[in-house]
Amino acid sequence: MTKSVFYHAGCPVCISAEQDIVSLIGSAKVEIVHLGEQKNRIAEAEAKGVKSVPALLTPNGNVLHLNFGASMADVKG
Amino acid sequence: MTKSVFYHAGCPVCISAEQDIVSLIGSAKVEIVHLGEQKNRIAEAEAKGVKSVPALLTPNGNVLHLNFGASMADVKG
User: Fold this and answer.
1) Which of A9, A10, B14, B24 qualifies as a FRET site for B41, CA 20 to 30 Å off?
2) What is the pLDDT along chain B (77 residues), one digit of tens a residue?
């Protein structure tokens, strides 16, 4: 596995994190998976160790769980 | 600001995250700050929005809080 996989669920906080991750790592190096739209990949994500979203699965198999301090504007958005 | 800043506190989980982040983003693009050793930078980190460590401050000013599901081995390590 040479690409990272960014799992999210479409919430505003997830989209913000997605933009940051794509900007930092480069879009060619990260696959974006929207678990709300690709429910068939939820089991795969869980099997890889994803406990919450947004999360980044690195090429070496580690899972980075990304938690913003979500603003109320994000929660309401 | 063109570099990201990775704030951590030296715990095993932080070091693991640091290695992942450096590997993903590239060491030239991220400054590593050990808040346990550089206590004078804690106020700066808090002012930037860091609520917990490890955390990554992106070039556009967002803070990504990274939470691993820390294993007991990590906690004991």
Assistant:
1) B24
2) 589 999 988 877 778 889 999 999 999 999 999 988 998 999 999 899 888 888 899 999 999 988 754 445 554 55
Q: B1 CA to chain A: closest CA distance, Å?
A: 13
Nearest-angstrom CA–CA distance, A55 and A15: 12
| B57 Cβ under 8 Å from any chain A Cβ | no
CATH fold of B4-76 = Glutaredoxin (3.40.30)
Domain ranges of chain B: 4-76
The B residues from 8 to 37 touching A (CB cutoff 8 Å) are: 16-17, 20-21, 23-25, 29
Concatenate the DSSP letters of all residues of B8-62 into one string: E-S-HHHHHHHHHHHHHH-GGGEEEEETTT-GGGHHHHHHHT--SSSEEE-TTS-
> What distance lies between CA A27 and its chain's CA centroid?
13
pTM: 0.81
